[in-house]
Give the backbone structure.
Amino acid sequence: MSTETEVAPAPAPAKQPQRSGLPSWAVQGLVSLSAILLALVVGAILIIVGDDQVQKAVGYFGAAPGDTFSAAVNAVGEAYKALAVGAFGGITPISESLTQATPLICGGLAVSLAFRTGLFNIGAQGQLIAGAILAGYVGFAWHLPPVLHLIVALAAGLLGGAIWGGVVGLLKARTGAHEVIVTIMLNYVALYLLSWLLTTSAFRRPGRTDPISPIVDKNAQFPKFGDTRLHLGFLFALVAAVFVWWLLNRSTIGFELRAVGANADASRTAGMSVGKAYVIAMVVAGALAGLAGTQQVLGTDLPLTDGVAASVGFDAITVALLGRGTPLGTVLAGLLFGALNAGGLQMQLITQTPLTLTTVLQAVIVLFVAAPALVRSVFRFLPKERGAGAVLAKGWNG
């Protein structure tokens, strides 16, 4: 009989979850690019469904199925070709894309900065209008020397947006009022304040009965690049992005803002002033949105009207979401949306594809970005990221 003792085999080591060797920003970029690709696929389906030639070919699909596929490919190809040409097909289209992107970048930065501090800033629209009111008034009512006039009007726009955003931060810090409710209400206040001001003699253009202000003085306008609509405000947008990056990543205040955004209770326990962080974040965010307002009234739409903000403030939310709340991502997202806006006009002109298709593309892109698990279910090769989809949670403290 054997006296040897049987030794149980050692348990197999627990299988460690596989992690991508890519940095987090690279994974997020892949997810965003995949979301854009999926959005283009959805857009292609909508183009096919709404195209007259495709519908005619479907009527005799059984006799000649190839005609249907050919019409579908042609419809999508022509539409997207027109979109690309309208956005990048020469100096003028490129300059128009950059012009459309300029206020979106600044508005997106305003939303992104609030996200990083744990605030959901839906008030970029109102802050933009507040900035446009002051910048526009200084632009057409004051008469100052060149350069100085632009500087003063620009400062007025920043001040207007900062005050409008600061009210939100102050109410949040002192009373705990939810920033979503406050910003939504202040959007309406700013809009109707502008509408009322344009009926007064101080703002309405002499001899006109419609709500439109005098044209901003030449000295207060952003200089244009050549014969295009692109103006110096685009460079200010890039400078603003660099400033936000420095503020968040290289300054003590930025560290506190990010800490509060990550965990307000832990930051308070560590001795940080959460209320102060909220006020600073909203003042700076408001100033950034105010900069977008100055770019509108001093660069693109020289008279002040009740449509000066268009939908820039709300589009800025989607830009910030697509940009993952980072300055670089926000700039790239703003450029993408600017190209879609500029190219959409050409697409509608050439192929009669409705301009609203670009709005659908923007919405679908954000939908997929906000649901990275859905994107990875389609593109299974995409690596997982820690905190996937946390961009909303990072900017939402509710």
Residues 387-398 have pLDDT under 50 and may be disordered.
